[in-house]
Amino acid sequence: MNGFQLYKKYITSGQNAGRDSEQWAYAQTLNEAFSLVGTTRLFNLLEQAEATNQRIVLQYPSSTEVITGEACTLQLASWESTPKPADRMPVSSWFRAYEFDY
């Protein structure tokens, strides 16, 4: 599969899965990665990840790196080293993940 097909596969799988599932979390990761690096870089990373049986993860900076302005980066990691749902997002992303009904 090419990068677009992989993206579509994982996004569709995430949309069909429950909100707290690993598929949903990976789809959210890919959505955030899409906004960080754009189409070409994300699709290339997806192809590379698929070829090496890995996944894309977001690497958030430490609190000292945030002060110096370092951005979130994308890395490839094994499927076994997937972070637990509570460890996935920093607080700022955690707030955006909830919908507020006023």
Please give a quick description of this structure.
Helices cover about 55% and strands about 10% of the residues. It starts with a helix and ends in a 6-residue tail after the last helix.
Overall description:
This protein is mainly alpha-helical. Helix content is 55%, strand content 12%. It has one domain (3-96). Helix 1 packs antiparallel against helix 2. It is globular and about 35 Å long.
Topology:
Elements: H1 3-16, H2 22-51, E1 54-59, H3 63-68, E2 73-78, H4 91-96
Antiparallel strand pairs: 1-2
Helix pairs in contact: 1-2
Stretches where pLDDT falls below 50 for ≥5 residues?
89-102
Encode the helix/strand succession as letters: HHEHEH
Q: How many helices in DSSP terms?
A: 4
**End-to-end CA span:** 43 Å
Number of discrete domains: 1
β-strand amount = 5-15%
Q: Summarize the main sheet.
A: 2 strands, antiparallel
User: Mean pLDDT, as a whole number?
Assistant: 79
Helix content: 40-55%
- Write out the strand line-up for the largest beta sheet, numbering strands in chain order: 1-2
The shape is: globular
Structural class: mainly alpha
The beta-strand count equals 2
> What is the gyration radius calculated from CA atoms?
14 Å
